[in-house]
Amino acid sequence: MRLRTKILLVAFTNIAVLVVGAVLFLTFQYGFRWESALLKPAEENILTFARLVGFELERAGPEGWDSTLARLGQEHGLTLRVVGEDGDGLAGGLGPLPVGVLERVRERPPFEERKGRKKGPRNGHPVFLVASDGSPRAWIGVRMPIGDRERPPRRGTLLMTAPSWLAFPFFPDITPFLSALLGALGLSALCWWPLLSGITRSVAGLAKATQQLAEGRFDVELAHDRRDELGDLSAGIEVDPIG
Length: 243
Description:
Elements: H1 3-30, H2 34-39, H3 43-60, H4 65-76, E1 79-84, E2 89-91, H5 99-106, E3 111-114, E4 117-121, E5 127-131, E6 138-148, E7 151-162, H6 175-214, H7 229-239
């Protein structure tokens, strides 16, 4: 591996270590959670969609819940299902839930009662994310009352699944972020490149000069365009090639 490649790898590794260290510090010192970071830009879109689903379910009635969820899921490229507070299936699929999803569904905060109606979670976050080991891997849950026009709502959770997080339509496009990141890395490499080129060129000249001296050729000529330790070393080799 060439010297300039090693130095660039060290520089990028240093940047990665600083980023990881900052993330670990925020996590342990301030309770930073990746779930909150992912939800922040998408939460309003998720809640808006959940309100739409709740309205459509209330209008369709229990007999039309399955078809309503299937239609909305197909329109948005998702798989939708509604479960009760214990994880029992209400509509959109009755198969068992992954353990991690079931645990989050059962973490029910108390509901605020107002005039005999459940208004929604009083404590805790209404939206949660779960990464499952099986398929599908990505799950989004929204705690919300589930009901129709003829009976009071009950506690429930709208679950949305997709093959990956990028398949959800709620998250912002990360292409500009990736482009900015690659641009920053490229700019960093351009800033380092003149220094690395100068160092490697000087080291290569010194290596060639020492090889010529080892062969008994003392007519060594080296450039004196550097005013640092490498320049002093080049001048020393040319002035006193033997010792």
